Amino acid sequence: MMVGRDDERERLSTFMTDAGERALILRGETGIGKSALLDHAVGLAAPHHQVIRATGVEAEAELPYAGLHQLLYPLFPHLAGLDDRHRAVFDVVFGPGQGETPSVMSLGIAVLDLLALAATDRPLLLALDDGHWLDASSIEVCGFVGRRLAGGAVRMLVAVRSDVTSRFDTAALPELAVPALTDRDAEHLLDARHPALDARTRRAVLDQAGGNPLALLELPPHVGPGEEAPVPLSRRLQHVYGARVQSLDAAVRAELLLGALDGVAAGPGANRSYGARHRMRDVDEAAAADLLDTDPATGEVVFRHPLIRSTIVRLATPGQRRAAHAKLARVYHDDIERRAHHLAAAQVDPDEEVAAALEAAAGSATRRGGAVAAVAWLTRAAELSETAEDRSRRLGDAAFIAGHAALLDQARELAHSGPAPDGTASPAAVVTTAYAAMYEDGDLRSAHRQVTAVLEDPHADFGSGQTLTRLVNLLLAVSQYSGDATLWRRAEEVTAALGDRLDPRSAIYRDAWGDVVRHGADVHERVERAFASPALEPWDLSRLAVAAYHVDILSRYSPRLRRAVDREIETGAMANGMTMLHLIMLDELATGRWDDAERTGQRVLELTTSHGYTLFAHHTRAYLGLLAALRGQAEHARELQAVVDAWARPRGVGFLTQIADAIGTTAALSEGDHEAAYMHAIGITAPGSFEPYAHQAPRTLLDLVEAAVHTGRVRQACEHAQAALDAGLPEVSPRLALVTYGALAMTADDDTEAERLYGKAESGSAETDFPFELARLRLAHGTRLRHTRGPRTARPLLARAAETFDRLGATGWAERAHAELRAAGLAAPASPAYPTTLTWQERRIADLAAAGLTNKEIGERMHLSPRTVSSHLYRVFPKLGITSRAALRDALSRVE
């Protein structure tokens, strides 16, 4: 019985009868009813069509053309009717043929001819369930065929999960989304299958299932009245199945594990091409537990749902899985690829016999066009090799195949994955291994040691010099991410020893990326000259842009980055594209285009995570955390800060731990918690100094000074502002000039001198290049004027600051600016970014403060820290339109 699905059934009926679409993908979450709709379509087709069914299985996802073989096996009797050329293609892919490996196009055309021949007498429906688990080679061919079925007597229907990526996602085939059941249909299905449920349990099941049919059928025995779902639905269903599996006898569980790790039969009878298969026996207990069904076509027992198969594998211990794989390897003694697949999974220690079997399987896969599987098997064979020579040879073969399959990044990685037989590594190999150690694992010290050792080796052969430059630039990148003074000084020693062999651009990177406080005085001129070069490669563009960021002139070159970034990503230069996107995001942050920065950050985060660039992914999260802190989204900012810090600090990635501290500083300032801001800021650098090689030290200058002023640490604030001037920061970059003079103005005792310094800070292009910093200075300047020269003089500056904060979406700062405006007598509304209603906790704290209690006393009563009380009051004041505790009583009376 199928409940509901009127729209989906109507679409399938049209699909089976109209002459339009000939291929359709059913897409939905696990258990949503894709298989039931597939069965419905098969029922519609059965009277007039020949139906061929196939099922993708995760255990076969690495086996080239396993899915296609399963789908086409029933049609092999028609091969005799094909011409010699197309028969030869099938012989190479599925048989013993030794001809040229067919392309997707040539194999796809042969498949189309076979389907057309088979559909001569009766139309043909290909019904493929769990298509996402098909091997990549099979999906490529199915996609090619599906796009070319128009006008024939063949239809193809594929069901895929929406939460599992596969090549069907980009197959460009029509799709039918399978949503959850409506509330009415969900109730109907539940009542039909479980009519005796009490009302509370029934409600709990409906709430937890969320319209998912599988959950509606399986959850009722496991849900208590009024129980809330403790875990996501897919995991809850796995718990349900897991409980059933664990209740079985050990021998039955072992038999189920063999079935779960095995594939799917291509058809009834023995299949000589793929050898004899394991068939589960003595599993009546599992069938009685509703874990198994009987396939009506073959009479074999099969799993009722893919989640059952994955649950069985998940519950098995590693030893049990290895033992099962070893037994399956014996079952497939005549099938070179499946045997090797199971041997590789069963083996832990080096074993030349297993390595040789994998190598032979890779040769078979290569001959049949399964390059991805061949590369994986050769790499595994290298891991299991007993000698360095065999390991090196197999890795070389894997790199060669990857290169011919257009897997260029993988080819470069494999070419340098291990030492040569003599134990040495070439400089080019060190570039690759150190690069991987840094970007994939964040192992900076290992990367630094590898590169330094090669650069100091007097016998190293750098060839034309390009390898030398790449090693130097990699060493500088490693040092930059480390933020470690010791590693940086070592890098400076190594690069200085190179003398004239050091590329001038590398010298720019060293001085800009390392310590602009001490080495940045002329960097911006050197960057400008380098950017003027007519022959600038994309990687030079991105590296010079990083240098431009460190001296705050990135905006000048942002248009060039925007023109280049899409080209880099589309052509596969992912790492360079990611760097460019980071720089574009930084420019958008600096120039106040924060919505654009959010979109750019999410884009690069998706790229970095999907391509395994772990360091870049956390780098992106750090920038997103900083953006959230600027916007006053403190909770989200601190979540990202914690993730970044937890990954970066144990690895010594100082570049990111400094940004994590900057997130904490910025979030605290946005909330008005100046004590917390000060503690975060001095974690980056001590007052009155700028920590060597700490790139965030000059960037947090204004934060440290402002937090110190507001917490009564006037001496530390003055020392830090003066230290910035003494270090020559205004000459390093325009932004550092802005914040240095602003910090000096904040700490000036004399009002006339403060006015002069504020004027000097606000001159130049700060309005467009650094609007947030300029608004902060205007707020501080306006606040000082309100107290020294009266409200009328302060209003213009405060209004401009409020307008900028509102436009940027800097909610915490906007609140403060609007509160100052109201205190200056300007009847301006509260910041639109915040509601003016007090929360219960804010109202309680305000009442106690109005009664004269200190922050410490309020905290003791409400079990809060004094700092948290201060943060709440900081949010309360602008909501009430006041700036001091003395005005609380009257403001609260007006509210009432």
Radius of gyration: 34 Å
Largest sheet: 5 strands, parallel
> Structural class per helix/strand content?
mainly alpha
What does the oligomeric state look like here?
A: single chain
Number of helical stretches of at least 4 residues: 48
- List low-confidence stretches: 266-275
* Helicity, as a percent range: 55-70%
CATH class of the domain at 6-177: Alpha Beta
Mean pLDDT: 84
Instruction: State the end-to-end distance.
Output: 62 Å
What is the CATH architecture assignment of the domain at 6-177?
A: 3-Layer(aba) Sandwich
Strand content: under 5%
What is the CATH superfamily classification of the domain at 6-177? P-loop containing nucleotide triphosphate hydrolases
Strand order of the largest sheet: 2-3-4-1-5
What is the approximate shape?
globular
**How many β-strand stretches?**
7
* CATH topology descriptor of the domain at 6-177: Rossmann fold
